Amino acid sequence: MLVPALSVLYMTAKVSTMVMTNIQQYFPNPTEERAFVAKTASTLATLGFNSENTLPVISVCRDEICSSFINAIETRWGKSFSLGGLAGLPFGGKMEMSVAHDHAPDIHDRKRLVIYGMVHIGFGPQGEVGGCVRPGMKELNRACGALIAYSGYTKEEDKELNKIFTDDGEYGLLIYRMEKAIKPGDNNLLEVTNAALEVIQQDIDRLTSKVIDPDETDYAVFTGTQIHLPDGNYVQAADSWVVMNSQRQDINFNS
Ligand SMILES: [Zn+2]
User: Fold this and answer.
1) Residue 251 host element (H or E)
2) How would DSSP label each residue in 24-85?
3) Which residues make up the environment of ion ligand 1, defined by Cβ < 5 Å?
4) Distance (Å) from CA 60 to ligand 1 centroid
């Protein structure tokens, strides 16, 4: 018998109010991703950032389901610089942050960057934490795969860390960096996801401070969680800030 793919059944289905209410226990204010990007752009427009004088820099997971968010950013801001790797951690590091800074437009009064750093997580049709409906797949898949792997990371794998760095370099880096934030193994995916978001925030803050000269460059940072639901992708905004004329100011998107 031909089994219809789960994605065919659910891709266009609205998430039920009950499931959405359940998800809002963890993420109280999910905003559709294009609306979120529009909000960031309109906020920055009032501060002199626009698509001609600003380079977008993006740190999101390599997962193809994150690409619609990249498309939304590029539609608004133009071609982007990729800083991110597995789970959205900014593995491009100081080197790539420095290159992004170098590529920012400089024919205007000041250089400007807008940086988006996002962790991500899926929910299934019944609100299954970590569940993810993917086009053409029969069964419910998972997201973020790298953080799910880290949640179940074992001491046996630890012994193999040298091999992981050889054959699986970025996952090795993820383990190395995440271990400083939350111990691996037997973790709740939501806890690991929140820990990864804090890592993204800390690393972007540190990298920008090391690389960007605030006397010549203004930059904004938006962090949060990409949430994949069967009916579309959303963003829960988290810490966001702008540095202009060497002055840092927080941006609150959840008020
Ligand atoms: Zn991922």
Assistant:
1) strand 247-251
2) TTT-S--EEHHHHHHHHHHHHHTTT--TTT-EEEEE--S-GGGHHHHHHHHHHH-S-EE---
3) 61, 63, 144
4) 8
- Tell me the residue type at 146: A
User: DSSP class of residue 110?
Assistant: S
Cα of 64 from ligand 1 centre, angstroms: 9
Report domain extents, the chain.
6-77+91-111+140-210+222-251
Q: Which residue in the block uniquely carries the two structure tokens 């990729």? A: 82
Q: Assign 3-state DSSP to the chain and report helix, strand, coil percentages, each to 5.
A: 40, 25, 35
Residue 117 φ then ψ, to 5°:
-125, 115
Give the Cα separation of 151 and 13 in Å (integer): 29
| pTM confidence score | 0.92
For residue 22, what pLDDT is reported? 86
Show the beta-strand stretches assigned E in 139-231.
Answer: 141-142, 217-229
State the pairing for strand pair 131-132/232-244.
unpaired
pLDDT digits (tens, 9 = 90+) for 54-108: 999 999 999 999 999 999 999 999 999 999 999 999 999 999 999 999 999 998 8
Residue 102, amino acid: D
